[in-house]
User: Fold this.
Amino acid sequence: MVRDDGGGGGSYIPAPSEYESFSDAEDVRVEVTDLVSYWEEMTNLSMDAFGAYNTVSADMKMMVVDGLSTARDGQTFPEGLQAARFLDNRMSDFSYFIKDVTEGVRNIGGAAAVIAEMFEHSDNSNGADINDIGFVFGDPRTTGPDGFRKTETFYDFEQRMAAETGMNAQALTGNDEYAKVTSYPYGAIYTFGDGSKKHVHSTTEYGANGLQTAVTTTYIYGADGKLLSTQVERNTYNDSGQTTTRSTSTTMGEGDDKRQTTSTTTENTDGSVTVRTETQSGDNKPTVSESTVQRDDHRDTGGDAPVHDASEKLDSDGRDYTVHDYGVA
Assistant:
């Protein structure tokens, strides 16, 4: 390697710095309880990040549906459907990315806590060595050091907690394919193989101004009959049958573990769409976010779609894999 004097053709390696010794033992002292605190902070950070993402993504999904793929006067804007497909795909990819990131943050904190426990009383007290780091990060080929307590993976913990709270009920999966269905005039009851049930009830409310609101309430029960989740969907229509307000409220858990999320989409008179999301945990103060999307008026009954026409004329739908994955405009 040669020094790069600005003329190109080489790279610069700085001179090595002098080695600094740590003569004072305090300079290298490590308190293992700090690693435990680090684990707690990383776990909280992971949960906070995932919660914030869920709040924002709920707004985005609602805006994509209402702003791009909802029919106006019986017609759907072709370019809006194409954009909606792209955005749905991107949001799906990003959701997996966020899941990996938050799990990684949590796992790093968990590894720090395990290391703190392994070396709490020095490595000689429990026979731990550097090879046990593989055990810390869940290497299936390794085992814990001699004398280390019985362990439970986070996956096993999640499964155990799901079983205890009933959150592993088949009725919560959203797949009704194998459920036994009992219908009645205003709804249906779905009974699943594990004994859990989903009860769907529909009704219509009439407002003082004559507007109709269709209400669909879904109750999810565990195999033991415990109520696990309640979801209420409300759609309000104007005189011409168009939706003016759409809201979905989901409640899960009870007491301090209660979680409630309500998303409301409102069609404003100026053509814009307002999306409001309210999230509440336990008895804490609700967290509210609201955004309004201004959009062009695509309600021309003539059916003209100049961008679509130009796309067909110029064959500009994109490369082969794009057409394969998303179709054409």
Observations:
- The first helix runs from residue 32 to 69.
- The two ends are 54 Å apart (CA to CA).
